[in-house]
Amino acid sequence: MTRTRKVRAALIAALAATTLVGTITSANAEGTPPENGDAYVANPNDQGLIELYSNPEPGQLAPMNWDGAIGGWGPGSFESRHWDDNDYTEIQFIGCTMFGATGKSAGVKLWQAIPFNLDKDMGMQNYYNCFTGPNASTRAYWNAYYANGDKRYFTIPQLNGSQYTRATISVKRVYVDTALAD
């Protein structure tokens, strides 16, 4: 093997290692949120935590709670807007409608945007109840942290349990909440 090939192989191995290794301090994408907000108390000195301010001054980050709607998303076709987040994300859908199939479920996957690297998959949860009526809602939460990124977004990679469908989904109202305390 020539010297150039050895260097190239070493660089590729180093890139693969940094891509595959992530730091998770807390993760839960399946259960229900804790009854009280004291289940996990963040230490402000934990590596990578970003302090969020309720009334930010210039240069400070504010929690990004926002709402919107979704129209005509197919599996894997779009991603939501990105928002600043530290470790807790709650996403609620109200009034889900599916076109091209009978609406039963939507898989919602949360991502941590990592600059100049592959984004981290933070897990997927299936939303069912929002299909039962025009004001029915489904809410899920993720409580995880990955180093090297402070932006999050979500995608819908599956409809009715399949990524291979021509169906699309519209959601009357989407709420994103980044504060566990409320």
Helix content: under 10%
Give the terminus-to-terminus CA distance.
59 Å
- What is the strand content? 35-45%
Written as H for each helix and E for each strand, in order along the chain, the element string is: HEEEEEEEE
Largest sheet: 4 strands, antiparallel
Calculate Rg over CA atoms. 19 Å
Report the strand count: 8
Order of strands across the biggest sheet? 1-8-3-6
Query: Structural class of the secondary structure composition?
Result: mainly beta
Average pLDDT rating:
75
Helix count from the secondary structure assignment: 1
The 3D shape can be described as globular
- List low-pLDDT spans: 15-54
Give a topology summary.
Layout: H1 3-20, E1 66-73, E2 83-84, E3 88-99, E4 106-113, E5 120-127, E6 137-143, E7 151-159, E8 168-177
Q: Summed up, what is this model?
A:
The chain has 182 residues and is mainly beta. The protein is built from one helix and eight strands, in the order H-E-E-E-E-E-E-E-E.
Observed structural traits:
4-stranded antiparallel beta sheet, about 180 residues, mainly beta, globular, single chain, 8 strands
Please, could you describe this protein's structure?
It is a single chain. By secondary structure, the protein is mainly beta. It is 10% helix and 35% strand. The protein has one helix and eight strands. It has one helix at residues 3-20, and strands spanning 66-73, 83-84, 88-99, 106-113, 120-127, 137-143, 151-159, 168-177. Strands 1-8-3-6 form a four-stranded antiparallel beta sheet, with no helix packed on it. A hairpin with a 6-residue loop joins β4 and β5. The longest helix has 18 residues, at 3-20. The radius of gyration is 19 Å and the shape is globular. The N and C termini lie far apart (59 Å).
